[in-house]
Amino acid sequence: MKAAIVSAAGATPVYGYFAEPRPTEALARVTVTAAALSPITRARAAGRHYSASAAFPFVPGIDGVGLADDGHRVYFALPEAPHGALAEQTLVPVDRCVDLPDDLDDVTAAAIANPGLSSWAALTERAKLRPGETVLVNGATGASGRLAVSIARHLGAGRVIATGRNAVALASVGADATIVLGGDAEALDRQFMDAFAEGVDVVLDYLWGTSAERLLIAAAKAGRDAVPLRFVEIGSASGDSIALPGAVLRASAIELIGSGIGSIPLDRLMAATGALLRAAVPAGLTTAARAVPLADVERAWTGPDDGRRLVFTP
To answer: If you placed Cys at 85, which of 16, 64, 169, 243 could pair as Cys (CB 3.0 to 4.6 Å)?
Structure first.
């Protein structure tokens, strides 16, 4: 079969022939119809992600949409190595497949599943969002952050605050309030302090780095009589580490939580994905996407980023 193939860590995938998957009782064969190029897929191919394998060659792609051998449409995640989603067919443990609702098309499902799950799982599994609570999304102008604003509201948030560097993009995410990152540090700290003083229950952090440091310090200083703040670290677009004074945690009721592969049982992640996909059309969840033939994987992988999620269609 034809597939995108990674031959070494950091190598650009090439379009070529790969061994066809052989289904078993525990492993389902899926004929892929759409698979998005996610940051995790890129990081795994480069050998940088904590879940990356050292075995080569392999087919990249952690999730996608397709047809099971019995003909029904499924979303699938984490194919059995060395198979991946960027292929005509892949091999997936049967418990990593969920049925797709009829009203959700393949490309949209593939495009929103991974970025949408990042906030859906964080809010439902880690933060345990309660109706009426206030959610602050740190880094809301990317695909995941934009979806996080919509998903928080769909799941019952009473108020959503969004941060980001691009003021124009930030104004279009649909938040109740926005904070532009960058510029005068003291002015930014005051805005953070004001937000926490008014009340923030959950922070979904896609950036980490300096903005996360400032948010955590501002939250500790603002304090709300030991009212817990659930700070959920999801991504690290602005840096892999922070310098956090220990007093921030001693002097506050901040609960510092992570959300991702490994912090939530896989069966719960798959259940959350199914709930997300069933809610996609009723909740109006969308993201900008561009369908690309899988045969063009090498050019698309190294091409310029136009802000739309690439969805490969074998």
So the answer is: 64
Q: Which CATH class is domain 2-100+284-313?
A: alpha beta
Structure confidence by residue, pLDDT tens digits, 79-88: 999 999 999 9
pLDDT at position 10, please? Answer: 86
pLDDT tens digits, residue range 86-97? Answer: 999 999 999 999
CA–CA distance, 263 with 28 (Å, rounded to integer): 25
C-alpha distances in angstroms, 8 versus 19, 20, 71, 137, 248? 17, 20, 34, 36, 43
Does residue 42 contact residue 34 with C-beta atoms inside 8 Å? no
DSSP label of 85: S
pTM of the model: 0.93
What dotted CATH number matches 114-258?
3.40.50.720
Q: Could you tell me the two tokens for 200?
A: 């923030």
Tokens 């190595």 map to which residue? 81
